[in-house]
Amino acid sequence: MDDDRRTRFEAVYQQTYEHILGYAMRRCDSPEDAADVVAETFAIAWRRMDVLPPGGASRLWLYGVARNVLANHRRGQARHRNHSMELDADLADLYAHSPETSVELGAIARAFEQLSEDDRELISLVAWEGLDRAQIATVLGCSRNAVRIRLHRARKRFSKALAAAGVTVNHLIMESA
Amino acid sequence: MNNLQHLARVRDEDLAGQASGAGARALLASITSEEPAAESAIGPARRRTSRWRTRLVVGAVAVTGLAAAAVIAPAVLGPRGPATSYANSAIDIELRGDMYVATIKDPFADYAKYTEGFKAVGLNVNLEVVPVSPTQVGQITGMRLSGPLADNGESITNGTSPEGCAFGSAGCAMTVEVARGWTGWASVRLGRAARPGERYQNWRSAMKKGEMLAGYRADGKTVGEVMAEVRRRGLEAVFQIITPAPDNDGYGVDPKQQSAKVGDDWMVWEVQSEKAGVVRLMVTKERLPKNPVYGDTKILDE
Fold this sequence. Notes:
By secondary structure, chain A is mostly helical.
């Protein structure tokens, strides 16, 4: 029984680690914070194996957990996990090698930054995690229709912010299913 | 895919292989060494725990519904043998003669759905369906195998269902065929058509027939020359600076060495399809005595 739990967890971990690491890295400015989010997210998954969905749904479930961990982290409530030296070293390395945001993207980046956290997260889940509305609904724990409406509004606000910054909106595809 | 993606610090693809890195393995070991029953160890803030639980339960309910709907007809041989056919929302596997024919019903499905199907019929196959440039749709673009071939000398091939149909026509699906009696392990990448703007995950020369620069030879020309042709065809280009191996026998791509400004006098050694309308020029600053990508004898056969 215990072995079964371990095997299942390891399989999920292998399949989702890079996605969760990416999610955390895209949202955390420091490798230490990203390491905290990744470690805490999977630690929760290990404890909550009884509700961890099987297969591909586990990724969405983990995004939901990571999102909460991150929110707590930002509120300064997260407890710092003693994750390993190796993980810290891996992430420090990844951060050192990730390219700087290019200059041309500056205006877009600033407009993006101006959005509310909720708007930014919605758009990010589409643009960065490549999720469709149904998947986002699963991550956020709301209805697909709610996602559709919120996403529509978020895009509108983003387009407005971009227009104000003088960026042509046509080039900015925010495709989603 | 879009400008917003460039705002992202990393793409998940850039992190490929991280799961098997030292950090990931150490974290896994540290997490699984904890007593899993230590539910209350989630933190002193009990309120936080209960909110999580609410969310998690909602997620679990939604997922149960999905799984129930997905399994259509698992026909089981008996209590001891694996099934000879299996279907879920993503894949349909049945034994036809000497081959298991797996029809990809949903090329955009989560890979786990495919694995689940193969497992149900007793095959150890990991299938990834990835976006590829047009000429490799339906093709196996990568395969790692272990174990001997089946008695009929076959292992894994690609096909179509119905046989011989053209992709893109109604009812034509990609298939992966696995020899009955093959007992190995395989990891297979099968190409699917890319969504608009989606980056290809194959490494196809853009100069091959059917690709964006078909009929043109870019290898050994300068960036300036090649860019003129790229623009003439209404395409865009991105650069990939390659680091030739000693004696120009092969090359590597160093992610740290990609920031240099590529000049018109740089040399192009290969052009690959990056995504629809965009090619990737593989370049060096130096003019080299031998093409590090192709060696001396590149034949553009197709």
